[in-house]
Amino acid sequence: MKFVIKGGRKLNGEISLSGAKNAATKMMVASLLTEEACSLENFPEIGDGHITAELCRSVGSKVDIQSGRLDIHTPEIKTFRVTSLTRRNRIPILALGPLLARVGKAEVPILGGDKIGPRPVDIHLDALRVMGAAIKINQNSYAAEAKNGLHGAKIALRFPSVGATENTILAAVLAKGRTIIQNAATEPEITDLIKMLQKMGAIISLGTNRTIYIDGVDKLRGARHRILPDRNEAVSFACLAVATGGRILVKGARQDDLITFLNMLRRVGGEYDVLDDGIAFYRRDNLRGVEVETDTHPGFMTDWQQPFTILLTQAKGNSIIHETIYEDRFGYTKDLNLMGADITVFTKCLGELSCRFSGENYQHSALINGPTPLKAANLEVRDLRSGIAHIIAALIAEGESVISGVEEIDRGYERIDERLGQLGADIKRVH
Ligand code: EPU
Q1: pLDDT 10s digits, 68-96
Q2: Is the pLDDT of residue 279 over 70?
Q3: Strands 13-16 and 37-41
Q4: Residue 114 annotated to the active site
Q5: Is there an atom of ligand 1 within 6 Å of 164 CB?
Q6: Which of 226, 113, 90, 234 is nearest to 167 (CA)?
Q7: What are phi and psi of 72, to 5 degrees?
């Protein structure tokens, strides 16, 4: 599937945020921890939701997704093996904890690397091992067993991985005793997952210094939860407003989740008004170059650098993006250069700090020289976030761009073509 996009229009109007993809899918997995029914409101109709529904159904869940609501019920785990998925995302590894907790065994497919880096799961597996799981790495799967059940443990993560923090929490809520996770990730989607688990009967506290305490309970019950709005969508739409020179009210956007982004947007020359029902974004003056370093929460998120780079191609002077979360997340800058951008990537750390990739051969820093007008191009989507950057670039480029492989964008952005069309974008989906 492709998008055909004609650039050059200012986008104006209102757009409502969907529920956060990176919370919704984890909450579906969390529902496997109880034999009672759970429902999720503000559920995004995205590809990743359907892929995760397939995973849950494969182990015995009944799943019903209808107009912004998901009902899920797993009275019995029918199999501990998640091996026959037709489509993949990063979620199956998170099923290890709930399956171990409910049936003492779990087997999930090996996910492999993807287009943004190797994405290993060693931190997940180490944590589960400390909690009493024996894990075998087969050619195509991770097979785990906890003969005597999982027990609480003190676990210091070597890096505050989002997925490993979630996996450990999901395993710990039904484990025997107390689990302490040090150096945990603290992303808002994790807090929202904790809120859902608390409604289900879990005992979880957030301590200072990235520490999470979980006191295992015997049983969890069903719950109804409203998923937090997607802050990654909010940033994408904010960049769209500033890039096209329009004004977009992003309904549901929460200042709390976006503080670092809002500061950076103002530095570059964007502006925003925080309103009761969302945040309105627009351009204040000519854009100017800035230095950005991606980081774990509450830093500037790695999923924001791609749409933000489009602004930097239009900003006067040099800008730097130092990507410290993923090794290989600048492939899309080649596409932008084809469109007329001037971006060079480096293996050294640009900017003030050296990061854990220092001395490695990863192209993880980008120097952007602007402003450069962009012209239309034919592009192939590499991954979700660079896909949205392609769309924003095409919307400010002169001429007609064709973006193929948009299924990848549909994985995380609900009906993006229709919603952008309502803001005045000239975008058509071609099958
Ligand atoms: N890492 C390890 N070992 C592990 C786990 C992670 O070395 O066991 C490394 C990764 O290779 C990576 C870094 O730690 O370099 C961060 O990975 P993390 O585990 O924090 O990320 P994730 O859980 O795989 C989630 C989101 C990503 C988002 C990151 C960072 C989901 C499904 N994915 O990934 O979102 O970029 O956190 O915030 O929640 C997206 O939505 O497009 C997306 C990629």
Answers
A1: 999 999 999 999 999 766 667 789 999 99
A2: yes
A3: unpaired
A4: yes
A5: yes
A6: 90
A7: -140, 135
Beta bridge partners of 330: none
- The burial class, CB within 10 Å (0-12 / 13-18 / 19+), for 137 is exposed
Question: Please, what is the Cα angle at 161 between 320 and 173, to 5 degrees?
Answer: 155
Residue 340's H or E segment, with its range, is none
Give CA–CA dist 324/356, Å, rounded: 7
- Which residue has a Cα nearest atom 11 of ligand 1? 119
* pLDDT digits 0-9 by tens, 221-237: 999 999 999 999 999 99
CA 249 to chain centre: 22
Query: Which residue's CA lies nearest to atom 29 of ligand 1?
Result: 162
**Is the Cβ–Cβ distance between 323 and 329 less than 8 Å?**
yes
> Which of ligand 1's atoms lies nearest the C-alpha of 301?
38
CA-based angle 150:100:136, to the nearest 5?
Answer: 95
Sequence-ordered alpha helix ranges (H) in 47-118: 47-59, 96-103
Q: Tell me how far CA of residue 178 lies from CA of 95, 168, 203, 212, 300, in angstroms.
A: 21, 12, 10, 10, 32
Q: What is the mean pLDDT of the chain?
A: 95
- Residue with tokens 């059940």, as numbered in its chain: 149
* Cβ–Cβ under 8 Å, residues 72 and 28: yes
In sequence order, what DSSP letters do the residues of 68-82 get, joined into one string? TEEEEE-SS---SB-
Q: 121: Cβ below 6 Å to ligand 1?
A: yes
Cα-flanking dihedrals φ and ψ of residue 172, to 5°?
-80, -25
For the beta carbon of residue 232, count every other beta carbon within 10 angstroms. 22
* Bridge partners for 3 per DSSP: 403, 429
Domains annotated on the chain, with CATH: 2-18+229-430 (3.65.10.10), 21-226 (3.65.10.10)
Euclidean distance between CA atoms 50 and 58, whole angstroms: 12
Tokens of 423: 């803001």
**Is residue 208 exposed (0-12), middle (13-18) or buried (19+ Cβ within 10 Å)?**
exposed
Helix (H) or strand (E) holding 191, with range, is helix 188-199
The torsion angles phi and psi of 31, rounded to 5 degrees, stand at: -65, -20
Query: Ligand 1, closest atom to CA 117?
Result: 11
| pLDDT reported for residue 120 | 87
